[in-house]
Amino acid sequence: MSRKFYWVTITKSYLSAFALLIIVLFLLSLPSSYQLGVLTATLVSTSVEYDIVLDAGHGGIDSGGIGAGDVYEKDLVLDIVLRMRDILEGAGLKVGLTRDTDMDVTHLAKSKGTRHQRDLEGRFIALHSGKIGMSVHANTSKSSAEQGAIVFYRRNSYIGKQYATSVLEAIEQVQVLNHDYPVPRSNLMLIKAKPPVVLVEVGFLTNPDDLAKLTDPDFRQSIAEALCKGIANFYAVYRSEQSE
């Protein structure tokens, strides 16, 4: 029995399309940590415009945590960050903000995804326009007994730990601490930015004492001043080391 052979002609355009499809499928299968690495690599050439970029967490349709009486995290942390901007600019630093109104920052993202993913990416990108950065939040917990401030930094980052320690020592002067040491994390996107970035939880909205303090403008001013002191103490050392 004779066999028949069929020849199929594949054009270069089909080969190119097939190769592109394989590449896309490969990238989509990669872990998020690798994708973050690719994003970080693309931001290496981002121009640094500010001494520090401040990020007020949440905003817009994302209220963040909610305390009794419909107290929104997004409003409290924005107020603190705006106070910080005024203090730091008064000290001669150039300050950038991821937001200065009640909005998210999805418009800064460069890729598609859920609103939350684009918002995080937008903040991550914005933080690269500063020599250092800080993201300010307020916490919530199932237990109303949880209270106090927490300072997170990127795990295994020596400079990140020094930055977080400086901020922790300053905030301890005005607020009780949930942890009396800076907490290393490896799963928080914002502190994985190339410049040193810390994420600060200024208190728990679900704790009556913290909530009472955070809704007091005088306390928010004290928090803002303490955070700025921690930033200034670290930045003075960091800037001198960078110039050597």
List the helices and strands and how they pair.
Elements (H helix, E strand, L loop, with lengths): L11 H18 L2 H11 L7 E7 L9 E2 L3 E2 H18 L4 E3 L17 H13 L2 E10 L10 E5 L3 H14 L11 E3 L11 E8 L3 H7 L2 H27 L1
Parallel strand pairs: 1-4, 1-5, 5-8, 6-7
Antiparallel strand pairs: 2-3, 6-8
Helix pairs in contact: 3-7, 5-7
Could you explain how this protein is built, in words?
The chain is α/β, with parallel strands linked by helices and 244 residues long. The protein folds into two domains: 11-42; 47-243, Aminopeptidase (3-Layer(aba) Sandwich), CATH 3.40.630. Helices cover 44% and strands 16% of the residues. It contains seven helices and eight strands. It has helices at residues 12-29, 32-42, 73-90, 115-127, 158-171, 208-214, 217-243, and strands at residues 50-56, 66-67, 71-72, 95-97, 130-139, 150-154, 183-185, 197-204. A six-stranded mixed beta sheet has the order 4-1-5-8-6-7, sandwiched between helices. Strands 2-3 form a two-stranded antiparallel sheet. Helix 3 crosses helix 7 and helix 5 runs antiparallel to helix 7. The protein is globular. It starts with 11 loop residues before the first helix and ends with a helix. Residues 23-34 have low confidence and may be disordered.
How many β-strand runs? 8
Tally of contiguous helical segments: 7
Read across the widest sheet, the strand sequence of neighbours is 4-1-5-8-6-7
Main sheet properties:
6 strands, mixed
- Give the CATH superfamily of the largest domain: Zn-dependent exopeptidases
Which CATH-level-2 architecture of the largest domain? 3-Layer(aba) Sandwich
* Helical fraction: 40-55%
Backbone shape: globular
Radius of gyration: 22 Å
CATH class of the largest domain: Alpha Beta
The CATH topology of the largest domain comes to: Aminopeptidase
Kindly report the average pLDDT value.
Answer: 88
Q: What share of residues are in beta strands?
A: 15-25%
Overall tally of structural domains: 2
- The termini sit apart by 83 Å
Structural class category: alpha/beta
